[in-house]
Design a protein that fits this description.
- It is a single chain.
- By secondary structure, the chain is an alpha/beta fold.
- It contains 11 helices and 15 strands.
- The strands form 3 sheets. It has a 7-stranded mixed sheet with strand order 1-2-3-4-5-6-7. A 6-stranded mixed sheet has the order 8-9-10-11-12-13.
- Helix 5 (127-140) runs antiparallel to helix 6, helix 8 runs antiparallel to helix 9 (264-286) and helix 10 crosses helix 11.
- The two termini are 29 Å apart.
């Protein structure tokens, strides 16, 4: 989802360059690192933590990311070490260099259990997982060649996440962690990732949101091959509602992409409306005839998609279809070619 309705406020309009830092609120510093995707950056955070620093998210494992980190270590930490690495979730742009950072500083890793387990499994890979991905893509309507590309996504994950620490300190919903004399409350979100950790400091009025709430794009909400009957959109919408109820509207949100912003409740409402509109668009398309998920991609994504983007788009289309199926608005059946087709219920 591009843009916003203009109700959001962006207190900082210029992002730091790789290797630089920018203060956003007392004791919290903003970093930005490159990504090898169309979404070309990720925001990371440093929190002053007594004699050292807590790092929040690590960046994708690229040589230029390591070089940017080394410059930050040399020029911006004031001689103090990184004494803890917190990772919001297992996606490669967040956990990619966590192993390197933990080893570099002999620092412990903090993550939720599900996210750590996913990172460990994905970074090691397996033939049966690749086969499951291919079968999943074929059932959604991709041809054999495209399904083979989809099946190779774990190789891309391992390039971005070469190592994951073998031990971790568990983050859990509702717990508080002390960083620099302040309490940061852990709020778990689902849908984008299985157990995504957001960090909220009431004293500062700041939420480190990871990918759970982004100001100008909607987080990818996808059905995954390892849970082919999942309903992540339902989980995501429930998580958004919980977040809205728990935090003040004027919270300063520090997202993993785009710029820090005020207007948390407004943005949550926008995201919920965005997904409702996508569901309506799918229902309209299914009024014509039954369609598979691949046939429905142009309904949700008007721009051309490369292989990388197609994998995310397919999972997103399935997430909306499964949500509608759970609500009784769509029914699904499998054709003789093994592909699932969806139709509007009662049509």
């Amino acid at each position: 989802m591009d843009g916003s309705n203009g109700a959001l406020r962006f207190p900082l309009t210029t992002a730091p360059r790789p290797g630089e830092v920018q203060g956003v609120t007392p004791g919290v510093w903003w970093l930005r690192m490159p990504l090898p995707f169309a979404l070309d950056h990720i925001n990371l955070w440093l929190i002053e933590d007594g004699p050292g620093w807590t790092v929040v998210d690590a960046g994708y494992a690229l040589p230029q990311t390591r070089a940017a980190w080394e410059r930050i270590f040399a020029e911006h930490l004031g001689g103090r070490p990184a004494n803890r690495v917190v990772v919001t979730h297992y996606h490669p742009d967040h956990v990619g260099l966590a192993g390197w950072l933990c080893e570099r500083w002999q620092a412990p890793l903090s993550m939720t259990e599900k996210e750590w387990l996913f990172a460990r499994v994905m970074s090691r890979g397996s033939d049966d997982l690749a086969q499951a991905r291919c079968a999943f893509a074929r059932r959604a309507g991709l041809d054999a060649a495209a399904s083979d590309v989809f099946g190779g996504r774990e190789k891309s994950y391992r390039r971005g996440v070469p190592t994951v620490p073998p031990t971790f300190a568990r983050l859990a919903d509702g717990m508080d962690i002390a960083i620099g004399g302040r309490r940061w409350h852990v709020i778990i979100g689902e849908g984008h990732a299985p157990e995504h950790a957001c960090l909220y400091c009431a004293e500062l009025g700041v939420l480190i949101a990871g990918d759970q709430v982004l100001p100008k794009i909607s987080p990818n909400i996808s059905v995954q091959a390892h849970e082919p009957a999942g309903n992540p959109l339902q989980q995501y919408l429930v998580s958004l509602a919980r977040l809205r109820a728990a935090l003040p509207a004027e919270t300063l949100v520090l997202p993993s992409h785009n710029l820090p912003f005020f207007g948390l409740h407004t943005r949550i409402d926008e995201l919920a409306s965005h997904h409702a509109a996508r569901c309506e668009a799918l229902l309209g398309a299914l009024s014509e005839r039954p369609k598979n998920a691949v046939e429905l991609l142009p309904v949700l994504f008007r721009r051309p998609l490369d292989a990388h983007q197609t994998a995310f788009a397919l999972g997103e289309a399935l997430a909306h279809l499964h949500y509608l199926e759970a609500r009784g608005e769509v029914c699904r059946s499998q054709a003789t070619d093994g592909v699932d087709y969806c139709a509007r219920s009662g049509g």
